[in-house]
Amino acid sequence: MKIGIIGAGNIGTTLARKLAACGHEVKLANSKGPQSIQSLANEISVNAVTKEDAVSGVDVVILSIPFANYPDLKQTLADVPEKTVVIDTSNYYPGRDGTIKEVDEGKPESVWVSEQIGRPVVKAWNAVLAATLANKGAPAESSTRIAIPVAGNDPHAEALAQDLVEDTGFTALAADSLEDSWRQQPGTPAYCTELTLPELKAALNAADKSRAPQNRDALIEKFMAPGSQFTHEQIVATNRAMTA
Asked: By CB atoms within 10 Å of each CB, which of 19, 40, 51, 239 scores lowest?
């Protein structure tokens, strides 16, 4: 499959590496231009390109950029064919992204993203820590394999995203419509808690829309407190405890 990824941070780069290792043809772009990531691209066997090249002639576009920057991509995606699947991996954090009134008032994050870029999207890989994505993939037959929720409104696009999630070493769970994707946003029991498939199903059902932003902000305050240090395992355990 031909895949374009915009965003060369931890998630975007890890996805590029893993998907290329599965045999997909991957193009990777960032905001600074291909020369800034050429060494990285060589290392992980992908092509470093411009944002415009990343969305040209591909089957899938994966967007992995800061949440507040999505409006900047509307023109980049304007001429991308309707059949091209667009996957959103982002999350909204007001302390980083600034206040976005519509999202604060309850609009699901990926619905807002879709409106900003003028394209329907599938939400995937947002509810996983970068270290989890990089290091904790497992064979499909593993009983402890971590599951990742995938939400979308188009069955074909959602199925394709699920296949790619499986390629990265995780079990894909169809998580209903994009309008319901708030159930996998920051502050919910499904977000960055490393759950198996049965556990993830229960976590999505247990999500509380009114509590999620409060949980999100409380977790950030805890993780960013002066002098605080958390191991990966402690981050996961804290996410589980404070969103239960």
From this structure: 40
